[in-house]
Amino acid sequence: MKKSLLLTLIVSFSFSLAVFAADETGKESKAADRSQAAAQVLNEIQGAPDKGIPQEVLGSAECVAVVPSMLKGGFIVGGKYGRGLASCRTPKGWSAPAFFVVTGGSFGFQIGGQAVDLVMLIMNKDGMKHLLSSQFALGADASVAAGPVGRHAEGNTDWKMRSEVLTYSRARGLFAGVSLNGAVVKQDKDSTREFYGRMVPFRTSLTGEIEAPAEAHAFLSSLAQWAQEAAK
Q1: Are 105 and 80 in contact (CB under 8 A)?
Q2: In what helix (H) or strand (E) does residue 90 lie, and over which residues does it extend?
Q3: How many domains, in total, are found in the chain?
Q4: Is the pTM of this model over 0.85?
């Protein structure tokens, strides 16, 4: 029994290492590719009739963060790891993107690995302050809740009054709010240097102090399109 448990743990740990290494070295980890993938995620989610993020919610968000193909893996010890990018509203429009890593762990019987698309909406100034700090924990530093789904929020105002961050996930074609308590978001310095050619602090990019490179156009255009639709 003990040998079987030990073998399972070793397999789980090896799987997690392989997942992380694949993300570090694979072509999909490139920052410019991630920007394009994030735009596609937003377009596909919001393009699904009555299954997207409610217009009232998206229209109220201060910042939007997307993690394309966030990885979940493990047999007994589950883990989450993903790389994404965020943009915030500024007087000039959506800001240049900030690149981040989200990590988190959970315990329970989880078999196999699964890739999901993750969307996080920062709903107010307090949540934005946490994002600008370049590292924060969901549920500890910033309050987090599963976001409502549908074309409209149907009069439910809890999301507006209580949560600093609303989270969504999409896997195997299913889109739903998801809880990410305990996950840690911090700056992805390697992707930042790759994308901008130098180190750029979160505050510098997300407050509109720098221009967005051309590679960010698809992501920012998608944000602008859906924000405009939500404002109607």
Answers
A1: yes
A2: strand 77-90
A3: 1
A4: no
In this structure, what is the dihedral angle of CA atoms 175, 177, 179, 180, given to the nearest 10 degrees?
A: 60
Q: What are phi and psi of 149, to 5 degrees?
A: -120, 145
Exposed / middle / buried, residue 157 (Cβ in 10 Å: 0-12, 13-18, 19+): exposed
- Tens digits of per-residue pLDDT, 78-118? 456 789 999 999 999 999 999 999 887 543 333 345 678 88
Task: Give the whole-angstrom CA distance, residue 209 versus residue 204.
Answer: 5
Q: Residue 96: phi, psi to the nearest 5? A: -60, 145
Phi, psi dihedral angles at 22 (to 5 degrees): -60, -40
Q: What token pair was written down for 13? A: 């740990």
Domain residue limits at 121: 2-231
Interstrand relation of 144-146 and 165-171 (parallel, antiparallel or unpaired): parallel
* pLDDT single digits (tens) 128-143: 888 888 787 777 777 7
